[in-house]
What does this fold into?
Amino acid sequence: ETGVTQSPTHLIKTRGQQVTLRCSSQSGHNTVSWYQQALGQGPQFIFQYYREEENGRGNFPPRFSGLQFPNYSSELNVNALELDDSALYLCASSQPNRAEQYFGPGTRLTVT
Amino acid sequence: QQQVKQSPQSLIVQKGGISIINCAYENTAFDYFPWYQQFPGKGPALLIAIRPDVSEKKEGRFTISFNKSAKQFSLHIMDSQPGDSATYFCAAINSGGSNYKLTFGKGTLLTVNP
It folds into this structure.
């Protein structure tokens, strides 16, 4: 069984640019959630996707957007990058109507 | 407003000792409480979880104690080993809500000295 995978591992962008992060969910999992983890902090919920639709959103501005594809993989897009967007971005997948969430290794985004 | 408060921020334990990390929550709608273990440069790994209908759950050296009336829960690591050195996060979910959003504590950096 393949776990949650994310790409790329690391990314360096300049303020004002746009970035796309990718996530493949664990086999049998159709729900994907994205979290932002700043250095030394706990992960913060960005949004969740289920059946290719956004199913809940945390306190993040609209320049954070996402997609889920028919194979349950997902993308996180961030426009107009700001220095404070520098963080580890985590993707977690789960089975339908199950609370257990399993995380990928994350993408480390640095905005300069 | 921090809905899940975790303490201590850091903890140093000798090999073979007991590590105890505490969390308190405010939202009484929370009904699923997982603990995650995170090593540097890695994503959080689900360690153990509990629901409020039981007061204790044990898996190997890891035990969760849950006090519903006090809205508190804790992780106990028995016979702590240097390999347990990591950051531990408590979290909570309201599974009756519209989505399964994890609300995390700020984390505890555990160091187990050999």
